Amino acid sequence: MAQTLRNITKRYFVFSNDRLLVPAQADLSLGVNLLADLPIDVFAEYTEQVVSIRAIDKVEHHLVDAQKELLEHPDVRSVSLREIVSTMPREDFQHVAQAWQYAVFLRNHQFCGRCGSRMDRVQWEMAMHCHTCHHRCYPRVSPCIIVAIRSGNKILLAQGARQKEAGFYSTLAGFVESGETLEEAVHREVFEEVGVKVKNVEYFNSQPWPFPHSLMVGYLAEYDEGEIVVDGKEIHKADWFDIDNLPVVPPKFSIAGRLIEETQKRMAQDKI
Ligand SMILES: [Zn+2]
Fold first, then answer.
1. What is the 67 CA–ligand 1 centroid distance (Å)?
2. Domain ranges of the chain
3. What's domain 142-271's architecture?
4. Which residues of 223-240 are buried (b: 16+ CB within 10 A; e: fewer)?
5. Is the pLDDT assigned to residue 62 strictly greater than 60?
6. Where does residue 4 rank: exposed (0-12), middle (13-18), buried (19+ CB within 10 A)?
7. Distance of CA 217 from the midpoint of ligand 1 (Å)
8. What is the pLDDT of residue 6?
9. For residues 248 and 167, is the Cβ–Cβ distance under 8 A?
10. Domain named Nudix hydrolase: which ranges (predicted)?
11. Cα 164 to chain center, whole Å?
């Protein structure tokens, strides 16, 4: 039974040992609405710690973070964020990402970073406030550029330690530094990681990526000049791949997968 009161749907995002609890038989492809069917007795001990995180159009989102506690219930199972990103519709995953980022934020801001006093949650916005020195903190979002580089019918793909372990090649990505524009970050990261210069940098799309609090900002770019020289730290291998003969690449639910798909489309258009 969905937990509805006066036509309000309440969805509970319950994290236990860093995994989301869902009804045992839930089909994740149906999205976050399945969380309205979560049995509330599974988090009975945490009712005083329920945090309201969103209320739009008669749908309320509530967060319960049991941290390392294992909450168990015969009608419930737990799933990892990575499983959710690959199975739920994108907009639904973003709700889970938001809840998870709030959970991480609340864990990391129990005490004031300026004076060390205990912080309190602000009721009317997602923030933690120190009543001793009035320092206020908001959930951190770390912008990270990700870029697909094309040259003729080839795309530059690279492999760092994590991609090597997972057995695929991906587009280049890196965190934006303080004082830098997103476009400057694209040029700097590409040159630092693989030693080439790019031109015609064009915004594509963005994706929240809660591992733990990135915002991936996607760009398409064209090769300008230079030979590939990998930095040997973040990138171990990089090469130009024929668009019709790609290695294993990220799936299309990720922005990297969509950047590669868009590059493929544009090359096909150029051929016509
Ligand atoms: Zn303080």
1. 24
2. 4-108, 142-271
3. Alpha-Beta Complex (3.90)
4. beeeeeebeeebbeebeb
5. yes
6. exposed
7. 33
8. 67
9. yes
10. 139-263
11. 20
- pLDDT number for residue 184: 97
CA–centroid distance, residue 113 to ligand 1 (Å): 7
pLDDT tens digits, one per residue of 85-136: 889 998 899 999 999 999 999 999 999 999 999 999 998 888 999 999 999 9
2: confidence class by pLDDT, cuts 50, 70, 90:
low
Distance (angstroms) between ligand 1 centre and the Cα of 118 equals 8
| One-letter identity of residue 217 | V
Integer Cα distance of 75 and 78 in angstroms:
11
- Confidence band (pLDDT; 50, 70, 90) for 3? low
Average confidence (pLDDT) over 68-88: 92
Residues 29/89, Cβ–Cβ less than 8 Å: yes
Same fold flag, 4-108 and 142-271: yes
CA of 212 to the centre of ligand 1 (A): 25
From 44-53, 70-79, 175-184, the region with the lowest mean pLDDT: 44-53
Q: Provide the β-strand partners of residue 149.
A: 156, 221
CATH architecture for residues 4-108: Alpha-Beta Complex (3.90)
| Distance from residue 222's CA to the centre of ligand 1 (Å) | 48
